[in-house]
Amino acid sequence: MPNRNVIIIGAAVLLGLVAVIIANAFFSGVEQRQEAIAQQQQMARIVVASQELAFGAPITTTNTRLVNWPADSVPAGAFTSLQEATANRVALRPVVVGEPILASKVSGKDGRATISANLPAGQVAFAVPINDASGVGGFVRPGDVVNVMLTRQIPGDGSTASDKMTDIVLAAVPVLGIDQIANEKETNPAIGKTATLQVDVMGAQKLALATQLGSLSLALRNVADQDVGLNRTVTARDLTQSRLYIPARGQGGMAAAPQRIAIAPSRPRAAGLPQPSRPAGSSMTVVRGGTATEYEVQRGR
Question: What pTM did the predictor assign?
Fold first, then answer.
């Protein structure tokens, strides 16, 4: 009986080895045939994603594969070897199924997913404070484009706390992250406390100063809209159609008394006295210190 068990185990091991050899031969043959087809059709072999990859997802042999690709249209930075593409790398940006794995979209061999790896040359990441109102109700997410607006007090010795102005500090600024979320796939609204923006060095200096001068607000814009638009300062006068204003204060801190305008009551005239001529149409009477003067009111056309 023991000899029979040994024979059965040995036969199972032998069959397993044969199965492994046949499988390796099959897959090797498939790979060789694909390479032969690629050579015949002037195709290249590059690594693409076989599964959706989120920000920070490790690049492995289970979520990537080699495919034939036209040799004259291979994207820059594409990997031609699974071993090189999966060498302790992670995705720096979301990758969809069938999309080539590019060096610009994955980390180095250190395997760290950082925002700094996504920054183009000459660009920096700068975080600004936001809340539910200034952050567009949580609808600003990584990958969006925004305008940054600054609201502050109007400069000048005569301005008061209610004298405000708003300027667009930067226009069409990419959003890299909200709080610690940098995944562009995360599109659900969420209230954050900080927004990390991609700007140049001068833009970062403007934002650093703007955060000290007043309050910042983000305006969400269409990603495809390249028109920066008219950038002008908006004050309280732009919020109304009228031109109302408070006159300058006189000496002693008292405001200059406005000219009094009133409608004088009609007074009876003595019989036989000539009646003064009255302007045709509507009129108004201006009383200055007891003397009434009547003026014709011209209707606008």
Answer: 0.55
Domain residue extents for the chain: 1-40, 44-113, 121-239, 259-268+277-301
Measuring CA to CA, which residue among 166, 288, 163, 171 is closest to residue 226?
A: 171
Interior/surface letters 8-32, b for 16+ CB within 10 angstroms, e for the rest: eeeeeeeeeeeeeeeeeeeeeeeee
* Tens-place pLDDT, residues 158-189: 888 888 999 999 999 999 889 877 777 777 77
* Cβ-based burial of 97 (10 A; exposed 0-12, middle 13-18, buried ≥19): exposed
CATH number of 44-113: 3.90.1210.10
Contact 255, 247 (CB under 8 A): yes
Say what the pLDDT of residue 260 is.
44
Answer whether 149's CB lies under 8 Å from 234's CB.
Answer: no
